[in-house]
Every structure is written in structure tokens, then in C-alpha cells.
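Q: Please design a sequence for this.
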């Protein structure tokens, strides 16, 4: 049989105005997962990149068409999205 694989990218790799759905994380340490929970980022959440801040590689994102957040480059390098 054939397996259909969805393209996954790190949040940090998305361009401005690109979006995706959270499908996993690279860092499963409790502190990181608690941070995501506090920010309201969950599996299946829809994220759109609003702006990239070159100074520290942080991203302004829109979460679920509801609220804008700023996440660090470190956080963005640990969240996997599908298109």
C-alpha cells in the first residue's frame, strides 16, 4: 500500500502570511508543554504568521483567528505545523 504523508514544517520556517495547523512538537519537556498550554497553543490549533522580528527571530502569530501572540524563535523552532 501507499502511505499519504503530510508535509510538516517548523513554525519558524513559515513566511509572513503563511498558516498551518499544529501537528506536533519537537520538545516534549513538561515546562515547554505547560508554556504552550498557558499560551493556548494546542494540537489542531490554526496558526498564521503575522510578522517576523529579525532582531531575535521571534514571531507574531494569530491563533485560531482569535488572538495575536508573540512567540520566541526558540518556541517557533519546536512547533510542527502541517499546511
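A: Design:
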Amino acid at each position: 500500500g501507499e502511505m499519504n504523508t503530510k508535509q510538516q514544517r517548523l513554525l519558524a520556517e513559515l513566511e509572513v502570511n503563511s498558516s498551518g495547523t499544529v501537528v506536533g512538537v519537537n520538545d516534549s519537556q513538561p515546562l515547554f508543554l505547560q508554556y504552550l498550554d498557558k499560551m493556548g497553543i494546542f494540537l489542531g490549533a490554526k496558526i498564521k504568521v503575522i510578522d517576523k522580528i529579525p532582531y531575535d527571530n521571534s514571531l507574531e502569530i494569530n491563533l485560531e483567528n482569535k488572538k495575536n501572540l508573540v512567540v520566541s524563535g526558540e518556541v517557533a523552532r519546536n512547533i510542527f505545523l502541517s499546511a
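Q: Thanks. Anything notable?
A: The chain has a mean pLDDT of 94. The helical segments are 30-39, 73-76.
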